[in-house]
Amino acid sequence: MAPGHEHSQPSASSLAEFCNLGYSRGCPRLPDERQADANRFFVSSQGGQLRVVFCSERRHLPVEHAVLFFDQSRQTWISAHSNACVQRQAECAVESYLAQRTVSGGSD
Question: Which element (helix H / strand E) includes 78?
């Protein structure tokens, strides 16, 4: 939630252009003081675990990276990110990855 915009909904074009598919620096809701302009997640399967590589960027340069692990059989995080917002984004990346594999019939 962008500070000062807690009870407002961005337009569909803003969501697509800046939030979901784009680079946030052009978003009018973006705080001036922030750690990153974008967070990137890459998910891969390693046996019964999912490996989630995370990288945050500021001005198109990396500012943070981490590798997180999710145990598929126990449906729990083995290692999670300390920032709740980044962790939730990692959870969404895993959910999307698993949904795509279900649709495509993929498995380990």
Answer: strand 76-79
- Residue 3 to residue 83: CA distance in whole angstroms: 17
Note whether residue 73 is domain-resident.
yes
> Any idea which residue has 């969501």 for tokens?
15
Nearest to 41 by CA among 29, 30, 56: 56
Give residue-wise pLDDT tens across range 78-108.
Answer: 999 999 989 999 999 999 999 998 877 766 5
Can you give the pTM of this predicted structure? 0.74
- Among residues 70, 42, 77, which one has the least CA distance to residue 56? 42
Query: 37: which DSSP letter?
Result: S
Number of structural domains, the chain? 1
Cβ proximity of 51 and 79 under 8 Å: no
